[in-house]
Amino acid sequence: MRDRLAIITATLAGAFMALQYFITLPIANSAYRAILSWMQIIAAFAIVVGVFGVIRLHLERIGRKRAGWLYSVTLLAGVLVMTILGFAGGIDRGTSFQWVFDHWQAPMQSTVFSLLAFYIASAAYRGFRARSGESAILVMAAIIVMLGRVPLGEWLSPILPNVSDWILNVPALAAKRAILIGIGLGMVATSLKVIAGLERTYLGGR
Amino acid sequence: MNLLETTTTALLTLAIYSFLAGDNPFYKFAEHLLVGLTIGYTLVITLKSVIWPQAIIPMGRGEMPGLVPLILGCLILLRLVPRWAGWSRISLALVVGGGAGVAIPAMLKARVLDQMAATANGVTSWAGWIILIGVLATLTYFVFTRAHRGAWGTSARIGRYFMMVFFGATFAYTVMSRVALLIGRLEFLMGDWLGILRS
Predict the structure, then answer these.
(1) Chain A residues with beta carbon closer than 8 angstroms to that of B48
(2) Average pLDDT of chain A?
(3) Which residue of A has its CA nearest to B74?
(4) How far is residue B189's CA from residue A163's CA, in Å, rounded to a whole number?
(5) Residues 6+ apart with CB under 8 A from A64
(6) Contact, B39 vs A54, CB < 8 A?
(7) What ranges do the domains of chain A cover?
(8) Which of its termini does chain B have fewer beta carbons within 10 Å around, N or C?
(9) What domain count does chain B have?
(10) Is the Cβ–Cβ distance between B34 and A78 less than 8 Å?
(11) pLDDT tier at A203, thresholds 50, 70, 90
(12) Is A42–B69 a contact, with Cβ atoms under 8 angstroms apart?
């Protein structure tokens, strides 16, 4: 019963949202905007569910004194600090909430992403050892694009920046367009399956 | 930034970089703190900028349409109660179905028709012809209902070469963006914190 109701909801919502693209009536447009807003609110509630799931998991870990439970205390302290600061002092510029974001959260995030620079170097080394023609093309394209974007490339050869631009604007663009067309067609096919009720894995794999 | 601010930021940065020497308690502490702060940040932003203004305030004003998303949102919250978790599928279905409906015209236009038009309209130069050949060759590679033999196989192989160039260029951009972030962090550590670098 519940699953059938869910499938009918998906079909009606999907069919309306797809068809309204071709309808110019103001009422259809306002209904479209309302449903978009509902989807955003539901997604926000889903985030709340996710947050409570994480909190429950870590509270359980602390309660049972599992390995690394002290790290769970750190995680929950982080959640608590941000939540209290956000609700007590606001989220605008100059608040403690923004201070923690600017001085702790954002620098740590950028540090985590910069860590990849070290690991990507080892991946590049494996790429350099590549034996096949295709991987040689990949490595050559990467080297030319990298050198073409830094002053060292221009110092080595004045044509390197132009070659780099040509790679990005011609062969790389061609492959990117074909991949985008493939992704687009795949998404349309999957969306049609969802609307037709043939794709039901979002209901829990049944 | 004062010394206390830069020192706390620098210590957290160093704690994350300590992962380069292997997994260790300093890294784990910083990692869990980052996850906790991010969860708290997301929760506050979600509640304050979406749920409160778009669902709670309209309902407080007695606007009936505001009640619908609130009910649908509460259905999602039932996922936390195992016995009634199944009811959340109705809200989920609205998001998935609605998203699918939005995706059909949007994807068809932006990812298929616009790309095809740009490719076809570009054949006024040599570069445009190369792009056309590259697009067609790459698309033939993705046709798996036909064996990649003969002329079709040659086209698919040329398509693979085009894709390798694209992956190489994407790899290069990823490397450069990560190295730029690394330089930014090192500038902070050596400049703002230690004062070795001067801008």
Answers:
(1) 86, 91
(2) 93
(3) A45
(4) 36
(5) none
(6) yes
(7) 1-89
(8) C
(9) 1
(10) yes
(11) confident
(12) yes
Structural domain for B190, as ranges:
123-199
A23: pLDDT strictly greater than 80: yes
Tokens of B6: 């830069």
Query: How far does B151 lie from chain A, in Å, by closest CA?
Result: 19
The verdict on residue B14 lying in a domain is no
B69 close to A35: Cβ distance less than 8 angstroms: no
Tokens of B47: 């509640």
Contact B37 A100 (CB under 8 A): yes
Residue pair A167/A141 in contact by the 8 Å Cβ criterion: yes
Write the pLDDT tens digit of every residue in A115-170.
988 888 777 777 667 678 888 899 899 999 999 999 999 999 999 999 999 999 99
CA distance A159 to chain B (A): 17
- Say which DSSP state B68 is in: H
CA trace torsion A149, A152, A153, A159 (10° rounding): 110
CA separation for the pair B145, A19 (Å, rounded)? 31
Q: Please indicate, yes or no, if residue B7 is contained in any of the structural domains.
A: no
Residues of chain A in contact with residue B66, where contact means CB-CB under 8 angstroms, are none
Instruction: Give the per-residue SS3 of chain A.
Output: CHHHHHHHHHHHHHHHHHHHHHCCCHHHHHHHHHHHHHHHHHHHHHHHHHHHHHHHHHHHHHHCCCCCHHHHHHHHHHHHHHHHHHHHHCCCCCCHHHHHHHHHHHHHHHHHHHHHHHHHHHHHHHHHCCCCHHHHHHHHHHHHHHHHCCHHHHHHCCCHHHHHHHHHHCHHHHHHHHHHHHHHHHHHHHHHHHHCCCCCHHHCCC
Residue B99's H or E segment, with its range, is helix B88-107
Instruction: Retrieve residue B182's tokens.
Output: 């690394």
Tokens for B173, please give them.
């951009």
In what helix (H) or strand (E) does residue B160 lie, and over which residues does it extend?
helix B150-187
Distance from CA of B124 to the nearest CA of A (A): 14
pLDDT tens, A35-67? 999 999 999 999 999 999 999 999 999 999 999
